[in-house]
Amino acid sequence: MNEENASHARGPIGIFDSGIGGLTVAAAIRNRLGNEDIFYLGDTARVPYGGKSRQTVERYSVEISGLLLAEGAKAIVVACNTASALALEKLRSLFRAPILGVVAPGADAAATQSKNGKIGVIGTRATIASGAYERAIRLLRPEAQVSSVPCPLLVPLIEEGLLEDPITDLVLARYLSPLLEKGIDTLVLGCTHYPLLKTAIARCVPGVQLVDSAENCALALAALLRQESMQNPDPARTGHFRVALSDSSDAFLRVAERHLSLPIGEVELRSVQGSSPVG
Amino acid sequence: MNEENASHARGPIGIFDSGIGGLTVAAAIRNRLGNEDIFYLGDTARVPYGGKSRQTVERYSVEISGLLLAEGAKAIVVACNTASALALEKLRSLFRAPILGVVAPGADAAATQSKNGKIGVIGTRATIASGAYERAIRLLRPEAQVSSVPCPLLVPLIEEGLLEDPITDLVLARYLSPLLEKGIDTLVLGCTHYPLLKTAIARCVPGVQLVDSAENCALALAALLRQESMQNPDPARTGHFRVALSDSSDAFLRVAERHLSLPIGEVELRSVQGSSPVG
Questions:
Q1: Residue A278, in any domain of the structure
Q2: CA-to-CA distance for B28 and A178, rounded, in angstroms?
Q3: A279 lies in a domain?
Q4: ipTM, 2 decimals?
Q5: Is residue B278 situated within a structural domain?
Q6: Which of A27, A45, A63, B219 can pair with A260 through a Cys bridge, CB separation 3.0 to 4.6 Å?
């Protein structure tokens, strides 16, 4: 490893999401790569991205990635399915740092794990409309039958902390029964919030394998850092974990903290106002 | 009326909301003041405001109001309960045009109409946390017992078009039964989306008077224009109705159009990126 790499390998992993949902990805990365520093930036001033246009999601993602690079991030994890689906190409065209989304790792895992090739995908309206999971799954497994359902009510339910609740079960049954009728054996949780609903979802689709994009993204990141020789050189250390938000108010932060056992202490406030638009 | 007033009286009424919910207010104003032009601006690029901090809501409201004034708006209606609760004072300190929110008209109507002085208020998390309705009701009726409940799931349900649905009824029962137990005889629908749920809400709280802030805001605006001699001088004309959004994608627009019988044709796109922050 040359000197530039050695210094660069000490930078934090920059993770961003439109809000707090990406903390499921941060938790999975921390579990797998405990010696890496993590800087998490949640764009809570403009959350959610899920219903917004490609152009707007691209602009926000570029701004937020710029803030992460300014913090010395050695790699950027787009811990937001909507931004991964809509903005990854744009980010890679602008920035040199390795950039990893959550769509490809989840799609690859689903394509590999499904036995009958019938795969369900759930996500926000924007993620589903983008067709990103479908395309990524078909790259590996062209004959796969992918059925996608937008589930716009799940994020609000999760953010209210209704993880075990008859209302949530009723909403899940509404969204998921068409997928069961299609005979899926694998279901991609295509939104970083959804791992918090894993238990309720599993109860609703018994026998179906759940693909958690957070977990698969952490695996892909570990492989990427190895490949680029960008791992933190000290394997014994405990990485720092910093969280910054673009708006001070987020009730869901405490729901996430409780359920993900993340050491979220002081939360920093970052303005996204001043950042200049690119592209 | 002098010449300046006469020219100024021809400007449109500027209405803004964080998104599309304020169209219920636009519809009420159009019903009552059909000869006035209306320019509606929905900040769909940053929707919702309901969970954001005062500082952020103030900044967004100032930016959007600036865009309305640039369109020649003669008065500004803040058709968003969150912005009315958090940003009205800031707007009035910066701009000379008459500025009207939805909180005071709704609160006044509730204080006047309630028989037993027990008044319920439902709204977003930010509106309820601000205590704005409670304060405004107590101004007129200091002994009123005001009970407030944040209902963060209602906007997503409405935006999904689930206006008549068992899931919505279950959610409403959860939110409203504590208010029934308190013996309220009047319920303020403290969010501009909620008039679309009026039927379902009325079914859930039989015998309780519903106060629709959209309707009361239109009444207050008519009085304000009269008082300031700012009515459009031609009572026979049919006003234009223009809608602009800060993001192109909004599925809820068609739900609102269908249920409010508003003539929403072409929707303009307005960038909020370039607008300079004030205050």
A1: no
A2: 39
A3: no
A4: 0.78
A5: no
A6: A27
Please list the pLDDT of chain A residue by residue as tens digits (279 residues): 444 554 578 899 999 998 888 999 999 999 999 999 999 999 988 888 877 888 999 999 999 999 999 999 999 999 999 899 999 999 999 999 999 999 999 999 999 999 999 999 999 888 899 999 999 999 999 999 999 999 999 989 998 889 999 999 999 999 999 999 999 999 999 998 899 999 999 999 999 999 998 999 999 999 999 999 999 999 999 999 999 998 875 667 777 777 777 777 777 888 775 333 322
B42: phi > 0 → left, psi -120 to 50 → alpha, else beta; which?
Answer: beta
User: What's B135's domain CATH number?
Assistant: 3.40.50.1860
Query: Could you tell me the two tokens for A48?
Result: 């959610």
- Looking at the 3D structure of chain B, how many domains does it have? 2
Structural contact between residues A133 and A127, judged by C-beta atoms closer than 8 angstroms: yes
Range of the domain at A164: 104-213
Q: For residue A263, which of A23, A10, A7 has the smallest C-alpha distance?
A: A23
With CB atoms and an 8 Å threshold, state whether A52 touches B44.
yes
Chain A residues 13-72 with CB within 8 Å of chain B: 44-47, 51-53, 55-56, 59
Pick the residue of B20, B43, B52, B160 with the most A CBs within 10 A to test the interface with A by mutation.
B52
